[in-house]
Amino acid sequence: MTDAEATTARAEAPPGLLIVGLGLIGGSLAAGLRASGFGGRITACDPDAGELRRGLDMGLIDAGSTRLAELAPAADVIVLAVPVLAMEGLLAELDALNPGLKGQAVTDVGSTKATVRDAARRVFGRVPPTLVLGHPIAGSEKSGVAAADPELYAGHNVLLTPEADTDAEALARVRALWQACGARVLEMDVERHDAVLAQTSHLPHLLAFSLVDTLARQDARLDIFRYAAGGFRDFTRIAGSDPVMWRDIFTANRDAVLASLDDFEAGLARLRAAVEAGDGDAMLAAFGRASHARRYFESLLNKTSYQTEYAMQSQSQVTYRVRPGGSARGRVRVPGDKSISHRSIMLGALAEGVTTVTGFLEGEDSLATLQAFREMGVAIEGPSQGRVVIHGVGLHGLKAPSGPIYVGNSGTAMRLFAGLLAGQSFTSELAGDDSLTKRPMNRVAEPLRAMGALIDTAEGGRPPLTIHGGTPLAGLYYDMPVASAQVKSCLLLAGLYAEGETRVREPAPTRDHTERMLGGFGYPVARDGDTCWLEGGRRLTASPIDVPADISSAAFFMVAAAITPGSDLTLEHVGINPTRTGVINVLKLMGADLELIDEREVGGEPVAEVRVRYAPLTGIDIPAEQVALAIDEFPALFIAAANAAGTTRLRGAAELRVKESDRLAAMADGFATIGVEHSLHDDGIDIVGRGGAEGPSYGGGRIDSLGDHRIAMAFAVAALRAGEEVVIDNCANVATSFPNFTELARRIGMGLEVQGPETESHHEP
Ligand code: S3P
């Protein structure tokens, strides 16, 4: 085709979009816009008349020319899809045609932004307000318009890097263009863009080019590639990319690429040293971190895994719709105990030797703890079907993490970590999600400071916490003002690193998993009545851990069976540590038909099958000594109370106000919605149950769980005796403690449907 032919007859072409550079990127933009029903005229300018003809034949463009001057003046929006080093000449040509780009929104697709910005400054003396620099994060190793794909940008990010004085209308036009192709448009500044892309795109391309080039040179006949399998193919696909484009990118983004290459070389040197020394733990630690991070990344792309919901829980909309009625029958084993799972990773990491954990809870909270230790250099295999193998590094073997430790929704993790990290030589930061960021941390920060730790909190003693390393700790006698296993455990963990004895007195018995597990790891913990203590400076020896099913999760199904006529449900392998059995004690006091079968001890923790059948319940005054023993089970117990005959009264439970939500208020709000008579108190609640086997105990309605897993599960169970559907919003956090709750709920006969992303069954492969 001649230049003249390529220029279709367009004396008075309607204004529209001009794509300069009709290759894969420009062509896919045209294709995406066409597919979206974009009504405007699309023209293209390219030095290759053959590409223009192909674009016309494919129906992607209405007109094409090899000369910019023929198309640019009529365009409203111009997209520069040429290699970055060609941008300056192009901008100068555009300036000559329309000085300062007035009235035209111009954008580019270059992989580096500082060079394009600098080119614009040289040409125009500034970045013109209508020039909106951008970069679609999508592509393929293919090039040319023939490879144009209307779906190339769908679901991908497009990064725009507007300046402070960028014209709002031009920005909106460029945004709209990409959004029409199904892309997500984000804004960031030029420097950040270039640094991020150097790491995530430019460095991997350099490595792929280098690997293929190195191998190809070693084997001039390229015989070696005959034997190359999937790994080689996956790793080197991008080495087939356009060499000119990449020469320009590495020239343009030189400094940022060199910085990321330095980091990479340091990491490679560490791995080389590990391979050379045969240091299996160091390899496992690095591979484990990488493998986990890769799966996390995969899940972000696929939007399927637990981690995705974890990362996006503030936005994620998981709603339970629960049909009224249903049954509670069968045998189920709920997932592993959350408290014990956290501790198994912590103590396993600090022990000497290899600890194998079975029955580990693969919920978001305990997985965050596991990942935190990986980030501190601990080699951890799994989890796989609840099995985790931890290669302990000893009390002084942790390494400084490269960034803040994120513990998600978990108060237990944050408080226990605070004690453990206070004893390290490095400084660390602990951060959590929105809910955790509201919870009180002075209850650990203050006694830790009394031991000599240096801890900063945000205002009001809230997270995040900064724990300064290298400060010597001294043992402390601490009389806890609140009954808290988390505070007790935090201080005992700090006590491992302290000079002398650390003693903790508790105002009421709280869960003693830390003491038991320390004992199991050969670290003596003494107890006399309400006080326990240990001496710092000893060592932990690896020991296998069998995590029982979590009584706190089982509690929802115990209550389900206790309130549902005709029920007969057996919960298997439930942990019945006496510091956790408040729920069983209270249900029995209310008249529940609840039986413990085959009581036994497994790895230092008592377990049993728990069989529950329906029996009419009666309201009671909950004995004060049961409060700490049932602290996590009250949302479930309140549902039992709503189905009992008469009033159930709870007092002395102000702690419920500082859990994942204010659980007294959250339950009261839910009761108000479904029509359960109650009165709220500062430290408790009175619940007037309707009781009886006949008919529903209350109505239905729409409830906000406030992102609190236990509020969500409690109201799901309530639906068994509701007169109408119960809809519960904000349920994503159920995955923190009970990842397969909805599956098991359906299995026992509850009519539970999930709207939004399912939060369960996202086990790692
Ligand atoms: C836990 C202790 C309890 C409990 C929490 C888990 C633990 O908190 O509510 O879910 O694993 O130590 P407090 O110790 O703050 O009461």
Could you explain how this protein is built, in words?
With 765 residues, the chain is an alpha/beta fold. It folds into four domains: 186 residues, NAD(P)-binding Rossmann-like Domain (Rossmann fold), CATH 3.40.50.720; 83 residues, Orthogonal Bundle (6-phosphogluconate dehydrogenase C-terminal fold); 223 residues, Alpha-beta prism (UDP-n-acetylglucosamine1-carboxyvinyl-transferase, Chain); 206 residues, UDP-n-acetylglucosamine1-carboxyvinyl-transferase, Chain. It has 27 helices and 34 strands. The strands form nine sheets. The protein has a six-stranded parallel β-sheet with strand order 3-2-1-4-5-6. A four-stranded mixed β-sheet has the order 32-33-10-34. A four-stranded mixed β-sheet has the order 11-26-28-27. β5, α6 and β6 form a beta-alpha-beta unit. α5 runs parallel beside α6, α16 runs parallel beside α19 and α21 packs parallel to α23. The radius of gyration is 31 Å and the shape is globular. It starts with a helix and ends in a 10-residue tail after the last strand.
Concise structural overview:
The chain is an alpha/beta fold and 765 residues long. It folds into four domains: 3-188, Rossmann fold (3-Layer(aba) Sandwich), CATH 3.40.50.720; 196-278, 6-phosphogluconate dehydrogenase C-terminal fold, CATH 1.10.3660.10; 319-333 and 548-755, Alpha-beta prism (UDP-n-acetylglucosamine1-carboxyvinyl-transferase, Chain), CATH 3.65.10; 338-543, Alpha-beta prism (UDP-n-acetylglucosamine1-carboxyvinyl-transferase, Chain), CATH 3.65.10.
